[in-house]
């Protein structure tokens, strides 16, 4: 059903003028009034950090929260490959329109055109901004910025800083944030976990946090709340995300009435190190840039146990190059991941588990020489060798897909505001720009666009229109939220069962990976919903948390997050079950072309599915925001 | 904003250490050059000593300057050490070095100890040779002039095995001090770059070997060879 | 594999700490050091004992959250890696491993192996940036930066702020951390407008936080997971001396 709450608020006018039109017409807060407005920003990654810094610069009174001990450790730091921008410095035919087009198509036509166009426009400003901050991007000998082509793009528009682009961009934003902290405009609250959103008269007016050092439950009031807490890939337990990444902040917003959009759109990244054992805590991503020079292959015959270097060229199947001759090893992530899974399911996978494929650099080393390869990927090769004890200069790497990014997230309108007035959601935590699949080097772009360039305008417009009345943390809404958070903590500690939080998280992860992972079908999804419900019920009866609530207690932190993951996991399965089509990262085995490619159903599913919480134990309600494609025409994606 | 107090900053203190250290190294070079005349002949050495003494008030100025440099070096050293104790109040149960690019050695870790021993050694050294342990120096005739025969003072002192070996031992510690001190001084002044660092670090070792080696050999030479007898071969050193 | 562990336990910043002995069994060589500690904690929780508190996040060596002193070495025995990247295969089966927190007055212990490194944030707040308001930037290619300079700046910028330099330094000096940031902006033209105030303010804050002097042991460079060179410290000193 369509909902009146799901009004995207897209500005009028031609697509290329929508954002400038918005900026020209939005309401402004006068400089004298800005400091009277308090804005809460939860998260200090590219989106949250950039937002807090920019809002501080503008003169707002910003309260900034993160679960890490320092804002510099937000998980954006781990992004390796690069950041896209339609600069066309390489004169290879790039433009804002082409980046827009590629992103909409790459997202398999499930993103909002107006948002994506704005993103492409802003990409250009981001690079300028970051260069001015002293981000040490790679350079050409002439001193100009270097670019490379990256996963699924036919132009070189990716800017990078070795294999540490996310780190360098984040440190740029972190520096700006700390500058505002020093100036007294941003107050920093590290080691705080947001555990509830506080609504007063239906408007987001504050948050409840747990101080992760003392265990104290703290309340903070503001005129608007920005949530930029990243994605939920750790719902799978094993993912490329940091172990503390979680969905709790976003999930508590959902339970307060913010709609959750497209939860089933998760991205499985093709180039990760394969799993080695049950004691593993995470999977390590190898930058997708490796696919620029590496060739993916498996033996042609099943069960070929020879060492890779002993398998002659003629007996190798370079399956990506074979299936997708135009894009070869550079097909988008969802396609590359699925192809690897299909090959392994056929029994042609390599390694001890049979669940990995080779990524071979022998040809690139022959063509370019080892020093060039070392310069491009030295740190990645070192990382691989450290973990696997294999030398990728001489033996092909072994890779396998792993959960990496979640396109789904809290629903937001064009202004990045959720269905709860005053609650804004930025970066990976929202659903807006990547549709059903995110292209490489686009996440950093989106996080920074949201934080540096979108929210400073849209939040001003919101505050100028709303003129929120003063609310203090002594308001009844805060007191009851605090009581609710304490009640949950006590409940978790009181169970005193037999199984650890990790045991449950691991089991949940297996259910999701097997049924709501790369290949999904109605039977598995239905089964997984009841499996998750049963596991969740058992969790609340038999979990063993240990420690106390008034202390530094990792086990308790994780328990709260896993409790939310059960509910989120179930919603992912529900969303996947209803979406009777395959698109992007969502691949329903029942809906594929004869060649095994994703088969979209634009007739029935060309929309955003946004779920509304209905209360404990009740089925959530599914709403739809229809998507229209006026500039990029709906077409079956083809990378052949 | 913290006020800028360059001399109180950690960097400023290390600059004081470095500059005073470099001046002390220059002094040691001059001192050793003078001492090496011991190998030439008694007269050469006594002439050199006499020349220094005849500088009169100028010598006092030089000595006062040297003392000041010493004091700067010592105060900065003790402050650094106190700071280190403050900065790490609880020691590790296990301590080790990762090797690799680390330059943490016995020399670098014992700077304060070798320094303290040198500090205790210097007054004894001055008492022994400048004041001949409180008794007047023997005298000798040089170019028809009566001068102090410090050469004999030296020879007599090093005839005593405790003195000779004690001296040599302290000079070994001086070598350790210089091994880290030479390159550390340059690094503290910011004079390092990747191209030169390995060279300077190696030069530090050569410098320590040459300087401390010279001082080290002297007492042993006089203990084993006595006065005059090996002077010619010793002069070739 | 089986290991005996001597782990520092400390309930809070002001409480005294002590070593406790544990044994872990069935450790596979591919496990990371932190996964080994995870396994220990799972055991402890099941036994109803207090798990060992330690910090970690990305577990791939880039976030800088983890940091333990293993047998007297910050981030363990291997060069150029973080604690989370240390694999158990580097230890001898059956050996005893001593695990301590990073020790420095400026890094007070929060609990067990968790320390407070917010001193680093306060140092960065004094100048670890180019003062550049959002929206005021010229075109990215307006200022050319030679490849050599960009690479050198990247070498310095690679710092992950883990604090191993402080932990490994016999004097608990933060010079490598501070100098890496000062160097990045001393090398790049974007940083030149503020280079003097940056050097004096950041060094001033470093001293105020109670870090020790740099005595040029270079142990920090050996402990640094990103191999940041003490050449940066020399550059910081030049910047500071030029600024005063």
Structure, described:
Chain A is of the alpha/beta class. Chain A has helices at 18-25, 31-34, 46-58, 96-106, 113-132, 165-182, 248-255, 290-293, 319-323, 333-345, 362-368, 370-388, 443-466, 476-495, 501-515, 522-542, 554-578, 602-605, and strands at residues 38-42, 61-65, 83-84, 158-159, 186-189, 192-200, 203-211, 217-221, 224-227, 260-261, 266-272, 295-299, 316-317, 357-360, 397-406, 409-410, 423-425, 499-500, 543-544, 607-612, 621-626. A 5-stranded parallel sheet of chain A has the order 5-2-1-9-17. Chain A has a 5-stranded antiparallel sheet with strand order 11-15-14-12-13. A 4-stranded antiparallel sheet of chain A has the order 16-10-20-21. In chain A, helix 16 (522-542) packs antiparallel against helix 17. The relative contact order of chain A is 0.16. Chain B has helices at residues 10-40, 42-53, 57-87, 106-109, 111-129, 150-159, 161-188, 197-225, 231-235, and strands at residues 139-142, 145-148. Chain B has a two-stranded antiparallel sheet. In chain B, helix 1 crosses helix 2 (42-53) and helix 7 (161-188) packs antiparallel against helix 8. Chain C is α+β, with helices and mostly antiparallel strands and 244 residues long. The model of chain C has no long low-confidence stretch (mean pLDDT 97). The longest helix of chain C has 14 residues, at 33-46. At the A-C interface, helix 3, helix 5, helix 6, helix 12 and helix 13 of A face helix 1, helix 2 and helix 3 of C.
């Amino acid at each position: 059903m369509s909902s009146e709450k799901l009004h995207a608020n897209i500005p009028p006018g031609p697509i290329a003028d929508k954002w400038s039109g918005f900026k020209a017409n939005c309401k402004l807060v006068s400089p004298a009034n800005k400091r009277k407005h308090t804005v809460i920003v939860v998260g200090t990654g590219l989106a949250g950090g950039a937002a807090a810094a920019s809002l501080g610069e503008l003169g707002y009174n910003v309260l900034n929260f993160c679960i890490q001990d320092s804002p510099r450790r937000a998980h954006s730091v781990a992004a390796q490959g690069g950041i896209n921008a339609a600069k066309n410095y390489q004169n290879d035919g790039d433009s804002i329109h082409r980046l827009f087009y590629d992103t909409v198509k790459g997202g398999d036509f499930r993103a909002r055109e107006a948002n994506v166009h704005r993103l492409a426009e802003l990409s250009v400003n981001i690079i300028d901004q970051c260069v001015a901050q002293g981000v040490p991007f790679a350079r050409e000998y002439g001193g100009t910025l270097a670019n490379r082509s990256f996963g699924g793009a036919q132009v070189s528009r990716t800017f990078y800083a070795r294999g540490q682009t996310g780190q360098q961009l984040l440190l740029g934003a972190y520096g700006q944030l700390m500058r505002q902290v020093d100036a007294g405009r941003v107050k920093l609250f590290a080691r705080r976990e947001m555990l509830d959103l506080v609504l007063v008269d239906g408007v987001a007016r504050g948050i409840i946090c747990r101080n992760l050092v003392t265990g104290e439950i703290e309340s903070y009031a503001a005129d608007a709340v920005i949530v930029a807490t990243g994605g939920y890939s750790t719902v799978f337990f094993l993912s490329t995300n940091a172990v503390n990444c979680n969905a709790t902040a976003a999930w508590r917003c959902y339970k307060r009435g913010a709609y959750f959009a497209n939860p089933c759109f998760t991205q499985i990244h093709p180039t990760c190190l394969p799993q080695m054992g049950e004691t593993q805590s995470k999977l390590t991503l190898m930058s997708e840039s490796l696919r620029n020079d590496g060739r993916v292959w498996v033996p042609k015959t099943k069960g070929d146990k020879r060492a890779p270097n002993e398998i002659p060229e003629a007996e190798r199947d370079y399956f990506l190059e074979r299936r997708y001759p135009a894009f070869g090893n550079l097909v988008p992530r969802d396609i590359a991941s699925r192809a690897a899974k299909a090959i392994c399911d056929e029994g042609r996978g390599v390694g001890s588990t049979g669940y990995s494929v080779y990524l071979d650099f022998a040809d690139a080393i022959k063509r370019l020489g080892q020093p060039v390869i070392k310069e491009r990927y030295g740190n990645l090769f070192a990382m691989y060798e450290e973990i696997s004890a294999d030398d990728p200069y001489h033996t092909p790497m072994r890779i396998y897909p792993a959960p990496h990014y979640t396109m789904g997230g809290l629903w937001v309108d064009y202004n990045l505001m959720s269905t709860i007035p005053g609650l804004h959601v930025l970066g990976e935590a929202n659903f807006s720009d990547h549709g059903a699949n995110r292209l490489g080097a686009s996440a950093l772009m989106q996080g920074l666009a949201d934080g540096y360039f979108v929210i400073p305008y849209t939040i001003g417009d919101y505050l100028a229109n709303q003129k929120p009345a003063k609310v203090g943390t002594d308001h009844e809404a805060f007191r009851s939220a605090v009581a609710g958070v304490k009640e949950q903590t006590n409940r978790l500690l009181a169970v005193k069962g037999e199984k650890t939080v990790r045991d449950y998280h691991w089991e949940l992860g297996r259910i999701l990976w097997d049924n709501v992972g790369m290949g999904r079908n109605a039977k598995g999804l239905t089964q997984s919903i009841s499996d998750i419900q049963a596991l969740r019920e058992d969790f609340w009866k038999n979990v063993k948390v240990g420690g106390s609530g008034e202390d530094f207690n990792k086990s308790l932190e994780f328990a709260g997050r896993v409790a939310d993951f059960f509910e989120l996991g179930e919603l992912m399965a529900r969303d996947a079950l209803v979406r009777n089509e395959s698109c992007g990262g969502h691949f329903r085995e029942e809906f594929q072309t004869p060649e095994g490619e994703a088969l979209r159903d634009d007739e029935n599913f060309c929309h955003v599915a946004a779920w509304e919480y209905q209360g404990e134990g009740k089925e959530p309600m599914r709403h739809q925001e229809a998507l229209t494609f006026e500039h990029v025409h709906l077409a079956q994606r083809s990378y052949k | 904003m913290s006020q800028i107090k360059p001399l109180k900053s950690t960097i400023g203190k290390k600059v004081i250490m470095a500059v005073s250290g470099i001046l002390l190294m220059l002094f040691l070079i001059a001192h050793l050059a003078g001492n090496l005349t011991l190998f030439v002949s008694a007269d050469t050495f006594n002439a050199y000593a006499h020349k220094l003494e005849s500088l009169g008030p100028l010598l006092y100025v030089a000595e006062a300057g040297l003392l000041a440099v010493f004091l700067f070096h010592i105060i900065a050293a003790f402050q650094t050490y106190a700071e280190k104790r403050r900065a790490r109040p609880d020691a590790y149960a296990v301590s080790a070095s990762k090797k690799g690019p680390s330059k943490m050695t016995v020399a670098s870790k014992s700077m304060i100890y070798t320094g303290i021993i040198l500090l205790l050694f210097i007054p004894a050294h001055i008492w022994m040779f400048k004041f001949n342990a409180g008794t007047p120096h023997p005298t000798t005739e040089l170019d028809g002039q009566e001068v102090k025969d410090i050469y004999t003072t030296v020879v007599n002192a090093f005839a005593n095995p405790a003195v000779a070996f004690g001296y040599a031992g302290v000079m070994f510690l001086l070598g350790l001090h210089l091994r880290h001190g030479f390159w550390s001084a340059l690094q503290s002044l910011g004079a390092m770059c990747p191209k030169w660092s390995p060279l300077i670090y190696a030069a530090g070792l050569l410098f320590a070997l040459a300087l401390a080696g010279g001082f080290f050999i002297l007492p042993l030479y006089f203990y084993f060879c006595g006065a005059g007898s090996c002077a010619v071969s010793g002069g070739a050193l | 594999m089986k290991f005996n562990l001597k782990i520092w336990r400390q309930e809070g910043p002001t409480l005294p700490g002590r070593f406790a002995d544990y044994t872990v069994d069935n450790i596979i060589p591919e496990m990371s050091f932190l996964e080994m500690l995870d396994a220990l904690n799972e055991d402890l929780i099941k036994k109803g004992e207090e798990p060992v508190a330690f910090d970690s996040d990305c577990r791939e060596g880039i976030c800088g959250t983890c940091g333990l002193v293993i047998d007297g070495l910050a981030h363990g025995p291997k060069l150029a890696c973080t604690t989370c990247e240390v694999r158990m295969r580097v230890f001898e089966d059956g050996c005893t491993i001593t695990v301590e927190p990073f020790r420095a007055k400026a890094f007070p212990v929060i609990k067990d192996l968790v320390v407070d490194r917010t001193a680093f944030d306060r140092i960065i707040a004094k100048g670890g940036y180019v003062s550049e308001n959002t929206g005021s930037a010229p075109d990215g290619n307006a200022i050319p930066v030679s490849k050599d300079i960009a690479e050198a700046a990247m070498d310095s910028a690679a710092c992950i702020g883990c604090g191993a330099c402080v932990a490994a330094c016999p004097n608990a000096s933060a010079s490598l951390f501070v100098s890496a940031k000062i160097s990045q902006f001393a090398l790049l033209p974007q940083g030149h407008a503020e280079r003097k105030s940056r050097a004096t303010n950041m060094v001033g804050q470093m001293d105020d936080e109670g870090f020790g002097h740099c005595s040029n042991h270079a142990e920090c460079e050996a402990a640094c997971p990103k191999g940041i060179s003490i050449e940066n410290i020399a550059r910081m000193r030049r910047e500071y001396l030029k600024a005063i």
